[in-house]
Design brief:
heterodimer, A: 242 residues, 6-stranded mixed sheet, 37% helix, B: 261 residues, mainly alpha, two-stranded antiparallel sheet, 2 strands, 5% strand
Chain lengths: 242, 261
């Protein structure tokens, strides 16, 4: 199987000295859907930001066989689509069209190609016809879908989501899960939503205090109550939680 | 929360709405310049400008009441500046008042200055309201960009348009959270709470700015702002621009000639 993400001994601390990631080793193969779970502050978002080169340290992260450095950031960002948790952060343009077109335009596409990419991306997420709307006047679920379209328009090979189902009602959540199932790209999903993990991801890793404490098949990891309890992902008492 | 649009009525359809945003922007600029350079007492010119802008508003299917109400919104600020003019302008004395140690004199030319400022401000506001109610803000931003207005300023305006209601919502939520826990307290205490809220709002906006920037960088943003726009300069734009441009220019010239005699 082809490795699309390879991380070797990645450590990272924020400028204020807080150590967010400690010696991370991780490989993801093409077509995989991997869940990244862990308590708040475990370093999930920080790890995701490394996959896209928002943060980078020398040579620790390889995307599609290339070590990430400041010379190939644009190349990497065109291939790794990162969807942020809050769609109000992701959607910063006055219209939906401008937002979905932002990536393709920055990649230097020609005008017809940009329009084509926008149209396709909006069709994928079921939001065709919303081009001229202003993001502020959309519902939360609609904003989430458009936020996903903004990276789909760049046709990335790897999709990275930070908390895709947070604040969504169950209907919105399940329609998003069905959308994810249709997307052919390799997916890395950081989430607290274990229903989503069960429905979508074959592999799960648990991150706690900046370390990977478990990496394996979703069925096995989610069945290991003691492991989940150790990271605060299951209730402390013996009753079976989610 | 639901908010009205900043560019209310801009989605209607009329002659003014169909014009290219650049035409309207340049026309408004020219209109304001013509109004501002009109010397005091150029009543003929003011009347003509009013006719021009009033007919534009009428032909734009805008509710007249809304336009009038909005045009008055800026007047208090103008008055605050203009109110001192009659006391400092020299000329024929209209009235003199002794208030304790001060002697205040009001002159006719001073009064004329005030009226002049008020008329100019009102006409300029009128044209700006016409511009923003017949042009979508997104088109206006494209127009500014096409007219080579500095990119940074266009981006600031664009972010303002996008985030103003997000921040208003955040403020409302903070206010609700405060009100649900607030049980009176002195005036000073309340002021202190408001001060803290403003501080927190600033920090939150700053942090949001950082996240938005990360989202931009994640999509290959490299400091260059590029957009596609759909502006198109049509025949109607040319005719409108030439006709009204000529009216404005000739009025200014005639007015200057009349007054210089």
């Amino acid at each position: 199987m082809e490795e699309v993400i390879r991380i070797e001994d990645l450590s990272f601390s924020y400028p204020d000295g807080r150590q967010a990631l400690r010696s991370i080793h991780l490989t993801v193969t093409r077509g995989e859907t991997m869940a990244l779970i862990g308590p708040n502050g475990a370093g999930k978002s920080t790890l995701l930001l490394h996959l896209n080169g928002i943060f980078y340290s020398n040579g620790a992260v390889q995307i599609l066989g290339k070590a990430l450095n400041e010379n190939n950031l644009r190349w990497v960002r065109a291939r790794v689509g990162l969807v942020f948790q809050d769609p109000d952060d992701q959607l910063f343009c006055p219209t939906v069209f401008d937002d979905v077109a932002f990536g393709p335009i920055n990649m230097g596409y020609s005008k017809p190609r940009v329009c084509e990419a926008v149209k396709k991306a909006l069709e994928w997420v079921g939001m065709a016809g919303y081009e001229q709307r202003s993001p502020h006047h959309l519902s939360f679920g609609e904003k989430k879908r458009i936020a996903i379209a903004t990276v789909l328009s760049m046709s990335p090979e790897i999709l990275v989501f930070d908390e895709p189902t947070s604040n969504l009602d169950p209907r919105g959540k399940w329609s998003l899960i069905r959308l994810f199932q249709k997307l052919p790209a390799t997916k890395v999903i950081a989430t607290h939503d274990l229903e989503l993990v069960r429905a979508l991801c074959s592999r799960t890793i648990i991150l706690d205090h900046g370390r990977i404490v478990a990496d394996g098949l979703t069925n096995q990891i989610l069945a290991d109550i003691e492991l989940l309890q150790a990271s605060g992902l299951a209730p402390e008492d013996t009753a079976r939680g989610t | 929360m639901k908010h009205s649009f900043l560019d209310q009525y801009s989605d209607r359809d009329s002659f003014s709405h169909r014009l290219d945003a650049r035409t309207k922007l340049l026309f408004t600029l020219l209109f304001i310049i013509s109004v501002v350079v009109t010397p005091p007492g150029g009543w003929f010119a003011f009347a003509l400008y009013l006719t021009v802008i009033a007919s534009l508003v009428l032909f734009s299917k805008l509710p007249v009441g809304y336009v009038l109400k909005r045009s008055l919104a800026v007047m208090p600020f103008v008055l605050m500046i203009a109110v001192f003019a009659p006391f400092f302008k020299e000329g024929e004395v209209a009235g003199s008042y002794n208030i304790w140690l001060w002697q205040l004199t009001v002159t006719y030319s001073g009064i004329q200055v005030v009226i002049n400022i008020l008329i100019k401000a009102w006409l300029s506001m009128f044209s700006l309201i016409w511009l923003t109610s017949t042009t979508k803000l997104t088109h206006l931003l494209h127009a500014l960009r096409r007219l080579r207005f500095p990119h940074v300023l266009v981006m600031i305006l664009s972010f303002m348009y996008r985030y103003i209601f997000v921040i208003v919502d955040e403020t409302m939520r903070m206010k609700q959270a405060r009100d649900s826990r607030s049980f009176g307290g002195g005036r000073l205490w309340q002021l202190r709470t408001i001060g803290r809220m403003i501080g927190i709002l600033f920090i939150r906006s700053y942090e949001r700015g950082e996240r938005v920037y990360a989202a931009m960088v994640a999509r290959c943003f490299d400091g260059q702002s590029r957009t596609l726009d759909s502006l198109s300069f049509k025949k109607a734009d040319a005719i409108f621009g030439i006709c009204l441009g000529l009216i404005l220019v000739s009025t200014s010239v005639v007015n200057l000639l009349v007054l210089s005699q």
